[in-house]
Design goal:
Two copies of one chain form a homodimer. Chain A is α/β, with parallel strands linked by helices. The interface between A and B is large, with 67 and 67 residues.
Chain lengths: 243, 243
């Protein structure tokens, strides 16, 4: 039987936003790896995946993999590949790797899978999609992301403020991740595009201390790394959902 | 107790891609409304939501709502609002409306919710996010949507070929929905941007007859309305997932 690594998207924070398929994989896998952020992240963010996984997988099958932001990043990915290989070496046939959001959307799983394949010949790699922060924030804030012929741009602020400003000029809906320390300039760009009124901000989605508010009420100094900003299309009044 | 309308995203087709929360809502709601496409759609697409819902809700609580593409569209939305109001009038307190994909992403729910609110005073409107076709196709085809600082553009081809070409020029990853009858011109634009090699196409995701293939192998005459095309970023080789 071929060894199988499954990247399972576990959503942004609320354990109920895991898919039925994802929950089954977490329950049935021989081992479940969970990423833990080292360095100096917000503690609520550091162990996000592990908290969700605890709802579906008994602790004895769960193993932590340490990741880093910034310079230590690439070395951490390689080390994660070694942990995956070691987990197979200990006898696991199916290993689930839990990843916040969706494994195809800004996920460490992309890097882990590549590092694992280098070490484990004939490794079968699969994924189970997960709810992204953009979708969760839209739902919790009553925001329509796109309707009809509207276009949507998604980008991390690490792509640069210029890319964000271009998206604001050319797209109906713009979603920005990882505003963090650049949030002041980000909000200023939204205001300059005359689109601040309807923009909505979210952090710690589905966690205790969840922070969802109109962008106009954001304190830029408080925005953590894992923040989400939705600048909705202007033409459509949206669903007017309550949450 | 306030009347509550919950738009539940049920994913593209595979019933296991409903979230645990969505499954709970479908199970517990007093009534579950499912959209059925009238007119001349592909039969596999017409009853997609109903097939998924059948896995979670007993048939006696399920009620069909007929939608149309094209000219009859707005009238159908208004009629759907009347069905929602009638379902509450018959005694339901919580009504779930099942919608393919995610209720905030190109969903009829946006229109149904607005029509329902006009008829039912004090209606509480909520949503549960769902997996989108873009995410499912990425997973099933082993495609990374975005990683690192990559940007992503999502648009329906109803936004025009020009918007699609601009997105190809300015964004790392471009996802196009509803290529359908314009698929020949769409693929030509991808080829002209020198991005056809890595593009992937999907239709009937999670259904019998699922059709996933490299874009270069697509027969443009066969693409249905609900098709998805992912043109991935070129720089990153991706996860090389198997599916």
């Amino acid at each position: 039987m071929r060894r199988r690594l499954v990247g399972v998207g576990v959503g942004p924070g609320d354990p109920e936003l895991v898919t039925v398929k994802g929950a089954r994989l977490l329950r049935d896998a021989d081992a479940v790896l969970v990423p833990v952020l080292a360095g100096d992240p917000e503690p609520r963010d550091a162990g996000r995946a592990e908290t969700i996984v605890a709802e579906y997988a008994d602790a004895v099958r769960v193993r932590r993999v340490v990741f880093e932001l910034g310079e230590g990043r690439a070395a951490a990915w390689a080390a994660a590949g070694a942990v995956v290989a070691d987990t197979f070496a200990r006898g696991a046939r199916t290993v689930a790797f839990a990843t916040i959001g969706d494994p195809a959307v800004y996920s460490t799983f992309t890097h882990v899978a590549r590092a694992a394949r280098e070490r484990v010949p004939e490794l079968l790699i699969e994924t189970v999609p997960g709810i992204t922060a953009m979708q969760d924030l839209a739902s919790r804030s009553g925001t329509t992301l796109c309707v009809g012929s509207e276009t949507l741009a998604l980008l991390p602020l690490t792509a640069g403020l210029g890319a964000f400003e271009e998206a604001l000029a050319g797209f109906d809906t713009v979603v920005a991740y990882k505003g963090g320390r650049n949030m002041r300039a980000v909000l200023e760009a939204v205001r300059a595009a005359d689109r601040l009124d309807r923009a909505v901000y979210g952090a710690y989605l589905g966690l205790s201390g969840e922070d969802i508010r109109p962008a106009v009420q954001v304190d830029p100094g408080e925005a953590p790394y894992l923040s989400t900003l939705i600048v909705p299309a202007g033409a459509d009044p949206g669903t007017e959902r309550d949450r």
